[in-house]
Inverse folding.
């Protein structure tokens, strides 16, 4: 392994001490590292390692392997072993989601992925969303409980993940965690109380690098944890990780990055500027709203097409299991297909004459049977109600209005965007054609749409594989201008205009055309 | 209290957060501190304080008192309280001697001394000197035992010292410790094994700032400890503290600073350069060599004069108690007075014809009765033997040769030195006239001799009372050129020449004249 290949692992031969060169062990190592790293920056060696240094140096004839991590201002030496040491040196990238936590174990020598795993955020037992968890911290020990849940969850998952690769948690020297502002606060045991109370103030914007042990994480005792910075209560480190992963901040062309959930978080920018905002897009875009709505998983409908002449439904379920529900991207497909097949009007209302026997009244409310009882996993009809569809229309209108607002704020139009990055699971499942059809996303060429996958995890991975990432992340954070969404009359007017399929101004969506024979 | 008066305590009113300014609590405080301190340097807030920050800020309407400490590269926030907080903010300067530990409690608001105390280094129970203690660390748990002894000793002394001022150890936020390289290693629990083994390598030269709690010190949980840097195994932080205290590094005139013990540690320099060396001066200059020798204390003879015509001894004891022994400075006085009264020849041999009945043969060896049995505290004769005096002559010759060597190394002569600083208790007690008479110190005008008192404690105090001290201390350390004493033929020749009273070359000591009638 060439030293130059690995930013974090340096094998060094120190000049042995002599009467002519009686520099102490610590400063001898620092001086050799300074030469190897070609740096004038401060180099910090953990005191616990300094204690062991005399023996390590002399037992290995002054040939050692150092494991490093780099803060913005200084290099940190987090491991010192004999040069012949063969134990792996690993890092862990973490996407700390409100619902799901995903881990990626990395070989810090090569930067390559060794293994991945995920688990449901154990804080779900306290509350499904940010709001309910923050309210739980009002109770005595509430914060401690939430903090314990995620730390224990991580420790267990890390142990299992390491075991799967015949490694031990102490082989992990560096963690990078990207998550929303509340999740990172709960991870660090910081009181999130003021995040949801006006004027919405986090405890910290730039947590930087902490000792993992200080948070109760059981890794190498010297391991460091880098927590991605946030811009505020509603624009978190997961989005900064996304910008880093997409490379939005490096491109000369202006692109947009959207993460869709209960909140839509949006960044527009290029190598010169970055502008961000976050707004309530409505829960219809996540699972959990329609009675049959759920998170993506086996048996969940993720794709729907309706054959216009016959109005037969063609459903695709994840892993092709019997259908048991529908996820956000499925709902968008459904609405687009209902509209294109003439079953839904431009206001998003089901047209009884066209829907025919697929319509049922349940508790006085109009429902569309998507999957009849005899085909569903549960043996009961899977339906969406008119209310579900109304909610979707409001959500997609909010989303579109937010996208319009942020691009307008920099004097651009949505059509000027060269790339439209969609983050997260939602981004991977969504069919951009359907999203354009219902007018949730702008009518850009389909090739402009780029699903990013787990960009939060991707950004966290980058933080661990390049020595300049942390400085770059700080630069990204500091360059972002946060646009406070001002829900004024203009916004409301544009929101109303967007509450149609695809939009009251059809000229904005030239590609969306219902074939005449289906009208 | 004006903020500007106190480098470590800043009372700050933060602009309260608003929708227009939603900076997080931590960064809000950092930003306000940056303005107050007028600095671009990094500002680090302990994570434990960040956890408490939201409550502290809101309970005090965003008016807080911050306690700071400063590393070379960054400011450290070690305390955050309400602006109206009245609890004292204290620091502790420590002179960590091999034999004695001295503490000075400081008000960090004013820089003034609140109280002082001292205790015998509890490691004396293991061994009287550096060598015996380092050998003790070869035994299992030896290092742990020595470390525990000094940490426990400090914790107890700190508790008592605080109690005497109605304070608590948690009111102490910063410590500065100056001591020799071995003592500081034992304090930090660092293995001193290689300090006494060729090529004499300490574990660390620049320990810098550590968390006091990490060393087991029970102070404020965030308290920091600054350990003075060393130049090597035999030139410790106590000497760097001495240079800082004497201001040797600031003056345009060249001065010398000498600390006399088993080793003589010497620095010569000015604002342009500093050169240092250390050498075995022989134990005769400390207590503990002659049978009656002891450390300075009540009843110990510290001044002797002999009336030349009558050869009557006039003794002074510390606190005027009945004489029970003699300290180093007393021995030097004695030798000088014996020589001036004609009882000692230029080789340092007692002259029986002149000493008369004061001479006694004990175990076949010539002894001089300094205090007859009927006047001594013990009721037995207090004597010095010819062997004791021979040892003193070797020690003083070694000392003089070292002083000569270091000044020669920079092309100077001893007579060119404008100030001769003598550090430590020895420096306070020694009569420079006597030291010149026996040729231990050069024949400079008496006004050139400046006793520094506890310059190690003085330097440690300075480290806590000025925000630039730590950087200045590092600069001093880095400017020092260490001269490895090369005991070659030239050195041995000069050593032989110095083994006479005052010297074979009487022209070097024009002021030393035995009056003709006493010859």
């Amino acid at each position: 392994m060439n030293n130059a290949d690995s930013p974090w692992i340096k094998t060094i031969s120190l000049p042995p001490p002599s009467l002519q060169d009686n520099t102490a062990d610590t400063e001898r190592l620092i001086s050799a590292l300074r030469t190897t790293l070609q740096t004038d920056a401060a180099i910090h060696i953990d005191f616990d390692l300094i204690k062991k240094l005399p023996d390590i140096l002399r037992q290995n004839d002054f040939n050692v392997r150092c494991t490093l991590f780099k803060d913005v201002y200084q290099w940190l030496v987090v491991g010192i072993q004999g040069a012949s040491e063969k134990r792996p040196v690993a890092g862990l990238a973490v996407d700390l989601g409100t619902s799901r936590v995903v881990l990626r174990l990395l070989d810090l020598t090569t930067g390559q992925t060794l293994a991945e795993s995920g688990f449901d955020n154990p804080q779900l037992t306290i509350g499904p969303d940010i709001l309910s968890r923050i309210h739980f911290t009002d109770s005595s020990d509430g914060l401690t409980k939430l903090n314990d849940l995620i730390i224990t969850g991580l420790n267990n998952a890390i142990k299992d993940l390491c075991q799967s690769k015949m490694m031990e948690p102490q082989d992990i020297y560096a963690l990078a965690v990207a998550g929303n502002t509340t999740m990172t606060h709960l991870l660090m045991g910081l009181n999130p109380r003021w995040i949801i109370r006006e004027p919405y103030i986090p405890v910290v914007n730039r947590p930087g690098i902490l000792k993992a042990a200080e948070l109760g994480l059981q890794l190498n005792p010297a391991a460091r944890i880098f927590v991605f910075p946030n811009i505020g209560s509603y624009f978190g480190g997961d989005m900064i990780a996304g910008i880093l992963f997409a490379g939005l901040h490096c491109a000369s062309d202006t692109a947009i990055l959207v993460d869709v959930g209960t909140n839509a978080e949006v960044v527009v920018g290029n190598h010169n500027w970055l502008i961000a905002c976050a707004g309530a897009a409505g829960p219809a875009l996540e699972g959990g709203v329609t009675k049959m709505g759920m998170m993506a998983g086996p048996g969940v409908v993720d794709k729907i097409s309706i054959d216009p002449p016959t109005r037969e439904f063609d459903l695709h379920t994840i892993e092709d299991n019997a259908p048991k529900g529908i996820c956000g991207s499925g709902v968008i497909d459904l609405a687009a297909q209902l509209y294109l097949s003439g079953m839904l009007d431009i206001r998003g209302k089901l047209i009884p004459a066209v829907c025919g026997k697929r319509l049922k009244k349940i508790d006085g409310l109009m429902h569309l049977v998507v999957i009849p009882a005899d085909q569903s996993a549960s043996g009961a009809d899977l339906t969406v109600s008119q209310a579900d569809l109304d909610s979707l229309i409001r959500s997609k209108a909010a989303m579109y209005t937010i996208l319009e607002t942020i691009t307008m704020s920099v004097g651009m139009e949505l059509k000027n965007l060269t790339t439209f990055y969609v983050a997260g699971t939602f981004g991977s499942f969504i069919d951009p054609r359907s999203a354009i059809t219902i007018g949730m996303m702008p009518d850009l060429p389909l090739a402009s749409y780029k699903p990013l996958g787990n960009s939060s995890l991707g950004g966290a991975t980058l933080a661990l594989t390049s020595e300049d990432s942390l400085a770059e992340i700080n630069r990204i954070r500091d360059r972002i201008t946060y646009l406070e969404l001002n829900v004024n009359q203009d916004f409301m007017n544009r929101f109303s205009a967007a509450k149609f399929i695809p939009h009251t101004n059809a000229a904005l969506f030239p590609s969306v055309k219902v074939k005449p024979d289906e009208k």
The CA atoms of residues 40 and 51 of chain A lie 24 Å apart.
